[in-house]
Amino acid sequence: MIRFNNDYNHGAHPAILEALTKTNNESYGGYGLDFWCEKASNEIKKYLDCPQAAIHFLLGGTQVNYTVIAAALRPFHSVICADTGHINVHETGAVENTGHKIQALPSTDGKITAAQIKEEAQLYASCEIKEHFTKPKMVYVSFPTEYGTIYSKQELEEIHKVCQEYGLYLFIDGARMGYGLAATANDISLKDVARLCDVFSIGGTKCGALFGEAVVITNPYLQEDFRSYMKQNGAMLAKGWLLGIQFATLFQDGLYFQITQKAVEYAMQMKQAFYENGIPSYIDSPTNQQFVILSTKQYEYLSNKYIFEFDRKIDEDHVSVRFCTSWSTKPEEVDALINDIKNNL
Amino acid sequence: MIRFNNDYNHGAHPAILEALTKTNNESYGGYGLDFWCEKASNEIKKYLDCPQAAIHFLLGGTQVNYTVIAAALRPFHSVICADTGHINVHETGAVENTGHKIQALPSTDGKITAAQIKEEAQLYASCEIKEHFTKPKMVYVSFPTEYGTIYSKQELEEIHKVCQEYGLYLFIDGARMGYGLAATANDISLKDVARLCDVFSIGGTKCGALFGEAVVITNPYLQEDFRSYMKQNGAMLAKGWLLGIQFATLFQDGLYFQITQKAVEYAMQMKQAFYENGIPSYIDSPTNQQFVILSTKQYEYLSNKYIFEFDRKIDEDHVSVRFCTSWSTKPEEVDALINDIKNNL
Amino acid sequence: MIRFNNDYNHGAHPAILEALTKTNNESYGGYGLDFWCEKASNEIKKYLDCPQAAIHFLLGGTQVNYTVIAAALRPFHSVICADTGHINVHETGAVENTGHKIQALPSTDGKITAAQIKEEAQLYASCEIKEHFTKPKMVYVSFPTEYGTIYSKQELEEIHKVCQEYGLYLFIDGARMGYGLAATANDISLKDVARLCDVFSIGGTKCGALFGEAVVITNPYLQEDFRSYMKQNGAMLAKGWLLGIQFATLFQDGLYFQITQKAVEYAMQMKQAFYENGIPSYIDSPTNQQFVILSTKQYEYLSNKYIFEFDRKIDEDHVSVRFCTSWSTKPEEVDALINDIKNNL
Amino acid sequence: MIRFNNDYNHGAHPAILEALTKTNNESYGGYGLDFWCEKASNEIKKYLDCPQAAIHFLLGGTQVNYTVIAAALRPFHSVICADTGHINVHETGAVENTGHKIQALPSTDGKITAAQIKEEAQLYASCEIKEHFTKPKMVYVSFPTEYGTIYSKQELEEIHKVCQEYGLYLFIDGARMGYGLAATANDISLKDVARLCDVFSIGGTKCGALFGEAVVITNPYLQEDFRSYMKQNGAMLAKGWLLGIQFATLFQDGLYFQITQKAVEYAMQMKQAFYENGIPSYIDSPTNQQFVILSTKQYEYLSNKYIFEFDRKIDEDHVSVRFCTSWSTKPEEVDALINDIKNNL
Fold first, then answer.
1. Which of B179, C330, D97, D184 has the largest CB neighbor count within 10 A?
2. Is C242–D211 a contact, with Cβ atoms under 8 angstroms apart?
3. Each residue's pLDDT tens digit, A81-124
């Protein structure tokens, strides 16, 4: 069986295991205050144009999201996001568990617009008696989204502008950042991301690391005491250098960008094959996640050879499914799938 | 500089990196529902005599502690522990952050007694109007403690008995479990631990793993929905098999016990050297952490060659410090220290 | 200016102030363990046919809602309600502040259906890997709703049935209970309410009391330790008898039902006048809250003589507004309004 | 039976019920934005010399304490208090329920010293790696304390100075403020209280009101958004003017000070009688709470005629008990007790 079910079904890029093995006899101080975390931070900063950024290394995506939100918000603050947002649907209420309301806005492609955010912020701003309502104080967007779509630079600029106008923090969940940056249609760089938001993450788990996510805090106000929030939320690895080594390896020669770009190329080949063979997309995604609509027969045929994810039922005879490529996808795996699409569906 | 500062200053036992490397081309389902987690669970169970135990693999010690406590307690429940307990002093209020009061009992050696627990539980039980007070519902002890001391089987039996009598869960934090079991004076086995408490952890981070802690839940009531609590608290690793592989490697041939025993032997050699050279213990510890009282001059001399931890000031001319051995300690490192103790202090 | 802005703009029914004055020289034990709370509880129970119910007296509606929810749910549980539900929009995220997600379902008239609830519960039940999602465990409905509408007995029976099927608690927020029971179209009694849900409130604040809400817990499992949750959440009045006296006064001779019925009669007169003069309802409400659509001119005219609540803009020239009657509404106030509707709009 | 069990065993001072009755036909806007709350605020401010103070009216003491603390602190902040402090022992972990650790300092008379606070703050300030610890950010003291004792002006000045030095908020719980100010030994005025702390409460429940506590926030930073925290924590009374009327009545002609002074005079008479008849104090209190040590025989004798509170067992034949006077104590009640002390013990 070939796995296209997600982008975290293999260990790590070999360079990472090599780096871990190579340094295994070295000893380091704990909790992220070590040579490697500093080096990784510096390597990432080369892509940012934001020397004052504070970069921390956490263990997983859910942890990143609720720790950042808990650190940034006061108890009566809420966070705006798409109703499809990861924090709203896939994290067991972790954000609410920290005490904060999520104001979910309707979305069909995983994205929300500056206009939607403005309406929500305006509603609160225009209340005469505000104290009956939570105050929207943060906007959470994912780049790319849970449906593989990406924001254009103009869209992010507009969202940024609304956030500035209404005093909202902008938090970009970049669990799959590499795959978004690698999209042909993408016109955003990490520099733009750093410039337009207050805090964002760069996912390692889904982009070649064993585990780990970098959190980049550009807003100085949010930098304060962040390590205390990390520790309190179980997000400070005792052997912090293990994360530093991984991110240093991924960023020092651009490996992060190379392996995610390759994955997107594979995804585009796959997308093209589906398209050419009349299999419609459920959502038009330019990144490593492809949502297509299969007939029951097609679904059953492919299920015998590939592991992929059921998304939803479309009608009696059709389902939407997700095929994922990743840094660990091999060309022969993609070729096998394309061959099956062409010849056997 | 030679590091005796803690037991998590090196990566992992080589066997673990080998196992990770060997399986790196394999692909697995996520979130701990994989072959390796099951295997690791089974390997651990061989030492337990508790087939109904549920075993989960989490990422770090603070996370284990607050997740277990959040999962077990209702909002008005409190947890009893030694005032020196890790949850009370070193975890940034993570337990209170989940809403629960810690009832800290005075302790001089890191341990609390059944009598102390009984008194606390009795106080609540005897209240006529209970609703003004939190209800003690869990007892947290560490084995070994933060001072390297261990509970005897009789002590744990007595604590267990009080817990049964007053409906308290007993939670044993085994972040350093291996070092406690390896102590010459120890008369407890993992079987005893599993029999006497409701939930306990087996630390990997400090005992040879890159990272990771096993949580063993023996009380069926506490097993329910534990995975939901893990996910909500950021304690469910996407690539869960990375933890399974590590614990399978540590437990399948008893590696865990061998490497921690070696560390305790080194600590005993060190302890003996201090003793023979008239350097008093601050606390008499039979495990890998040794607390000794150094004069300022001795402290300065050793600080030039070794990294170890300041504990507290004793008087104008003396301090208490901690020397730690671990699975990664090398015999030549111990020899160097012993030589310095003998000849240069 | 005549106030139709809400149902809590006057102190209390005179009988309540008399009762408080009459007992003012008496002394009582604290925290709700007194003669009056017991008497009030017994008077309420006469209407319930539920001898095992536990009845507590709290101070306000928001407090009731979050205390009941915090007491009933575990951290990964969520509560289902209408998107218009008071807990979702008017309580400053108090429920999320206790750590729980609200799953808001779309509603146009303030009500949700058994089918909607079933779909939500079914979604969770059918998940293969549940731990990524909060578990719906409670349904919150208001009777009457925030739009003055009421559930029929059949609707509540169906909701009850779904709740039983999926193990959901049913919580009925009766902040305006009296006005719902008094509706001509209503076919529900307090007996039905007690039979069909696990916990409900009977509002005093909006129904003749100075302040205070009765919480009736019919599900024995939810009764346990409720007083501890009250105290922890600031919901236990030191001089608890003040609440007992108020509820005993309201319920001992059916005063509660008489004064709320009168208010609904006034509301129906008002509704009829609007209708006869071509002023449409925004929502068809059979209770004391009337939502009508006024032209800008009508709005301005009435604003000079009456205080009432802006609800929302309908179009350039129309707004929806709320007129509320209450136990304190005087016939001459209603007459004045009706006269203006007939002759001056 | 005569009640000396506490200071909240009667309804309210008659002037308060009169004021409520007199205004009962008036109508007001809700949530504390009314004429009476403003008037009450102004009356209180006449005693403060702090025109910028923000004054809010909440419903009860526990609610005040956790709402103030939740509003002031960030998740990793802790609050320092005496181990006997009300928030530490009598509020069902309400503070921890908001996520904050209480750092309880040893106390024998209910008070803590500036030196103790400094030591605690210094400990954190001197940590090299702070993120493992909660940061003390607030000091909570009660005036008078739970044992009836009071801080001198010099003691409060010293505490204030330490708080300023270490950036700690000072919060004074004045649930019994009137009784403290009325003590002969007291050298503090409300002006001093307002000057020396960041936020304090003035209790109504125990000092003549039906219910209600004024919260005076002098630190502008803590004033921000406080009403949002009130609403979120169920601490905003819908009919807010009920609290305004009560506090306006208590403060407009100094009634608050007169009735609490009378209660302290009664307590001093009682104290004198105990003293003259050889019955020792458990703690020397200058306020309305008197703790004395009774023999079992004395305890039994008095228990037949008076209701008072058991404090603790002293030895086989002695117990410490609390006698409380209050605004509602009658001279004949005190005379009866004094007579019994003199003649029948």
1. B179
2. yes
3. 999 999 999 999 999 999 999 999 999 999 999 999 999 999 99
Nearest CA in chain B to A5: B29
CA angle A129, A131, A136 (to 5 degrees): 105
The 10s digit of each residue's pLDDT in A164-213 is: 999 999 999 999 999 999 999 999 999 999 999 999 999 999 999 999 99
Per residue in B227-284, pLDDT tens? 999 999 999 999 999 999 999 999 999 999 999 999 999 999 999 999 999 999 999 9
Best to test chain B binding among D69, D74, D97, D120 (most B CBs inside 10 Å): D97
> CB distance B96–D99 less than 8 Å?
yes
Indicate yes or no: CB of C225 within 8 angstroms of CB of B31.
no
Beta bridge partners of C318: C295, C315
Angstroms from B75 CA to nearest CA on chain D? 7
Q: Could you give the ipTM of this predicted complex?
A: 0.97
Q: Taking the model in full, what pTM does it have?
A: 0.97
Contact A11 B30 (CB under 8 A): no
How far apart are alpha carbons D23 and A288 in whole angstroms?
A: 69
Q: Of all helices (H) and strands (E), which one includes residue C298? A: helix C296-303
**Rounded Cα gap, residues C8 and C289, in angstroms:** 12
Tokens of C241: 């008898």
Q: How many CB pairs lie under 8 A apart between chains A and C? A: 56
| Gyration radius of chain A over CA positions | 20
- The answer to whether A94 and A65 have CB atoms below 8 angstroms apart is yes
Q: What is the pLDDT of residues D199-247, one digit of tens each?
A: 999 999 999 999 999 999 999 999 999 999 999 999 999 999 999 999 9
Write out chain B residues lying below 8 Å of D90, CB-based.
132-133
Mutate to test the interface with B, among C129, C228, C229, C230 (most CBs of B within 10 A): C228
- Give the three-state DSSP class for B286: coil
Would you say C61 and C173 are in contact if contact means Cβ atoms under 8 Å apart? yes
Interface size, chain C vs chain D, as Cβ–Cβ contacts under 8 Å? 136
The radius of gyration of chain B from alpha carbons, rounded to an integer in Å, stands at 20
Instruction: Please judge whether A76 and C89 are an interchain contact, meaning their C-beta atoms are less than 8 angstroms apart.
Output: no
Q: Which of A81, A88, A97 to mutate to test the interface with C (most CBs of C within 10 A)?
A: A97
- Minimum-distance CB partner of B211 among A8, A231, A242: A242
